[in-house]
UniProtKB/TrEMBL annotation:
<dbReference type="GO" id="GO:0016926">
    <property type="term" value="P:protein desumoylation"/>
</dbReference>
<dbReference type="GO" id="GO:0006508">
    <property type="term" value="P:proteolysis"/>
</dbReference>
<dbReference type="InterPro" id="IPR003653">
    <property type="entry name" value="Peptidase_C48_C"/>
</dbReference>
<feature type="region of interest" description="Disordered">
    <location>
        <begin position="249"/>
        <end position="291"/>
    </location>
</feature>
<dbReference type="Pfam" id="PF02902">
    <property type="entry name" value="Peptidase_C48"/>
</dbReference>
<keyword id="KW-0788">Thiol protease</keyword>
<feature type="domain" description="Ubiquitin-like protease family profile">
    <location>
        <begin position="418"/>
        <end position="568"/>
    </location>
</feature>
<keyword id="KW-0645">Protease</keyword>
<keyword id="KW-0378">Hydrolase</keyword>
<protein>
    <recommendedName>
        <fullName>Ubiquitin-like protease family profile domain-containing protein</fullName>
    </recommendedName>
</protein>
<feature type="region of interest" description="Disordered">
    <location>
        <begin position="331"/>
        <end position="353"/>
    </location>
</feature>
<dbReference type="GO" id="GO:0008234">
    <property type="term" value="F:cysteine-type peptidase activity"/>
</dbReference>
<feature type="compositionally biased region" description="Polar residues">
    <location>
        <begin position="249"/>
        <end position="268"/>
    </location>
</feature>
<dbReference type="GO" id="GO:0019783">
    <property type="term" value="F:ubiquitin-like protein peptidase activity"/>
</dbReference>
<dbReference type="InterPro" id="IPR038765">
    <property type="entry name" value="Papain-like_cys_pep_sf"/>
</dbReference>
<comment type="similarity">
    <text>Belongs to the peptidase C48 family.</text>
</comment>
<feature type="compositionally biased region" description="Low complexity">
    <location>
        <begin position="274"/>
        <end position="284"/>
    </location>
</feature>
Length: 629
């Protein structure tokens, strides 16, 4: 179980507020509002006097208890409005409400309540409004769990807001929340959503649930369809698996005839989708539809967030969306102007099913010399090939040298991830999210440069039954001193690392996460991993914690993951010593330069540079750095 204090840290609170359970809470809230709004209290109080209006709002909040999520939300909104009306009486430049008007309002409240409780009630409502804005609709009202509404009003304002803003679903869910709260003041006019007519499919990824949360019905966007039980699933694209030529433009034409920059859906603008296999079992012609990762309109957010940004505006209007000239919208506009498009998500993107090829299938492509020495034209040693045949995983013996001085490694064009990665180089533009093709191809290349590295494909953690699929696909990963596995959960990349302690004294697992993420996510991954190992007779696996550099936006988690991989391979023994000693790693990562370095290395791996790619020799040296422990 997660430590109680740790579970209520700002990072965990942010993850808790924006996960799939929060989406379900909002759906239940919406359906309750449909039934309740006929007899709903009128929140559009028109009294001109601030004190009189505040009293009416507060009395209204008292008539609503916390017996249901909807009543809890309406009570909170009424208290926020009461505090806002009293704030109108603040002298210019003052932060606190004047005492006399506050006390006057208190004396007019008939229901018994102490003055301190009255002030505290208004203060906590204002704090939630400042911290969360429209996200208050996702709060766990009327729930009796470890995390409650009070935890969000106690959290440090700026820290919690930073974690929320870095979450990939922040902007979309904030917009949906603002629209719902606005409907409360517009006589309940909240347009019917598509998911009210057709529920989500059981395996519909969270990113798609978020995208569909704000889509009005009844027309389903063409990127989705209904399964046999009339549940929303994603459409399986028809994708040609023929490797692209060296002269293929980087602006890839989609299978639907549009381009990545101009795809539209009916009369409503809808971002282009990237092609991906399902996150469940390997796709087949008869299988259920696999997933697409839609573009969520999330952009790189500034590191500094205003200390106060309430969603309730001074003058209430039916729509409470961000004003056109707000700092957030200006940040989004500037990012779109810079990149010329909306950034794509870092979800799975490969056009080739991961089961089509195993690493062992490629061992015959690399000739080996009789003395087992490695030549530039034969990057895998004979010993490594036999190991591949034994365990089926890329434990590869190659160039044993630091990453910053490694020579280019040519990868055959038949390499499944490389073609997809070269077709996805626009994901390496600033503000874009890395997909699985980039992650897997780059990690394969790094594994080929270092000894005894076991790299596990990012899709493996997406399988429902690790024991069955991993045994068939990757064999036994424990013949290697180092195992690296990228994991993607809820649109966020982090790295699982396992290493062998000296003298066969057990194995250690740690998670390197540039966002901190939710400990619950790490716990789930650790449980699944150890269950898989236990099924193969492996025990004695312990878990260690290590602090790593944190990303400063919502776009660079995949970049930081690859940076962590490079730094580990550059100083494997130093990394282990730091973990064992609970010491600082001393790592620094320049995300912008690392993006350019990754692009260059992928181009070098394909031989001639891809169009528009200029290979550099210095980026490896400057984009990542570590102080030796």
């Amino acid at each position: 179980d997660i430590d109680r204090n740790q579970s209520k840290s700002p990072s965990n609170l942010a993850s808790y507020l924006l996960d799939s359970q929060a989406i379900q809470r909002f759906q239940r809230l919406t359906l309750a509002w449909r039934k309740f709004n006929v007899n709903a209290p009128d929140l559009s109080i028109s009294e001109q006097g601030s004190i009189e209006a505040a009293v009416k709002y507060f009395k209204l909040s008292q008539t609503l208890d916390d017996s249901s999520s909807l009543r809890g939300l309406l009570s909170l909104v009424a208290r926020i409005q009461a505090g806002r009306r009293l704030d109108e009486l603040k002298p210019e430049g003052k932060k606190c409400r004047p005492r006399n008007p506050l006390y006057q309002a208190y004396t007019q409240i008939a229901k018994k309540i102490t003055y301190q409780d009255f002030k505290r009630s208004l203060s906590t409502a204002t704090s939630l409004n400042t911290n969360l804005g429209g996200l208050i609709v996702f709060l766990p009202f009327a729930e009796r769990g470890k995390i409650g509404v009070r935890d969000f009003q106690r959290a440090n304002d700026i820290t919690l807001q930073n974690h929320l803003a870095a979450h990939p679903h922040f902007r979309k869910l904030s917009q949906v929340g603002d629209e719902f709260v606005g409907s409360i003041f517009a006589n309940g006019e909240f347009p019917t959503r598509i998911w009210e007519n057709y529920p989500f499919g059981e395996d519909l990824p969270v990113k798609h649930q978020v995208e569909l949360l704000g889509i009005e019905g009844p027309t389903l966007p063409r990127e989705y369809q209904l399964d046999w039980s009339e549940r929303i699933v994603t459409v399986q694209p028809v994708i040609a698996l023929t490797p692209s030529s060296a002269h293929t433009p980087l602006s890839i034409v989609r299978s639907n005839g549009g381009t990545a920059d101009n795809t539209t859906t009916g009369s409503t603008a809808f971002p282009a989708l990237s092609e991906s296999p399902s996150s469940g079992s390997p796709p087949s012609n008869e299988a259920a539809q696999s997933t697409l990762h839609s573009t969520i309109n999330t952009q790189q957010l500034t590191n500094t967030i205003p200390t106060s940004k309430p969603f309730l505006l001074p003058t209430l209007t039916p729509s409470l969306r961000l004003p056109v000239s707000s700092s957030l919208t200006e940040s989004i506009k500037s990012a779109e102007t810079r990149t010329g498009r909306t950034p794509l998500p870092n979800g799975r993107h490969s056009s080739a099913p991961w089961t089509d090829v195993s690493i062992a299938d490629f061992s015959s492509l690399y000739p080996t010399s009789e003395n087992n020495s490695t030549q530039p034209s034969s990057p895998i040693s004979q010993a490594a090939s036999s190991l591949l045949q034994k365990i089926g995983s890329p434990a590869i013996t190659l160039v044993d040298s630091p990453l910053s001085t490694s020579s280019p490694t040519l990868v055959p064009s038949m390499f499944p991830w490389l073609d997809d990665a070269l077709s996805s180089l626009d994901r390496l533009d600033e503000g874009s999210w890395l997909n699985d093709a980039i992650i897997n191809a780059y990690m394969h290349i790094l594994a080929e440069r270092h000894n005894e590295i076991c790299f596990l494909n990012s899709h493996l953690f997406g399988q429902h039954r690790l024991q069955d699929s991993w045994k068939a696909e990757t064999g036994h990963p424990l013949d290697s001193d180092l195992v690296l596995t990228p994991i993607n959960e809820a649109d966020h990349w982090y790295l699982l690392v396992m290493y062998q302690r000296a003298a066969q004294n057990g194995r250690v697992v740690c998670f390197l996460d540039s966002l901190g993420s939710s400990s619950a996510s790490h716990n789930r991954a650790f449980t699944r991993w150890t269950e898989y190992l236990s099924a193969h007779g492996i025990s004695g696996v312990s878990r260690k914690y290590i602090t790593v550099p944190k990303q400063v936006n919502g776009d660079d988690c995949g970049v930081y993951l690859l940076g962590f991989v490079g730094l580990i391979l550059e100083g494997f023994r130093d990394f282990i010593k730091a973990v064992e000693d609970n010491a600082e790693l001393g790592w620094t990562i320049n995300a912008a330069k690392l993006r350019r370095s990754i692009r260059s290395i992928l181009a070098e791996a394909n031989g001639p540079a891809a169009p528009g790619v200029v290979a550099t020799k210095s980026d490896d040296d400057v984009c990542m750095d570590s102080d030796r422990v």
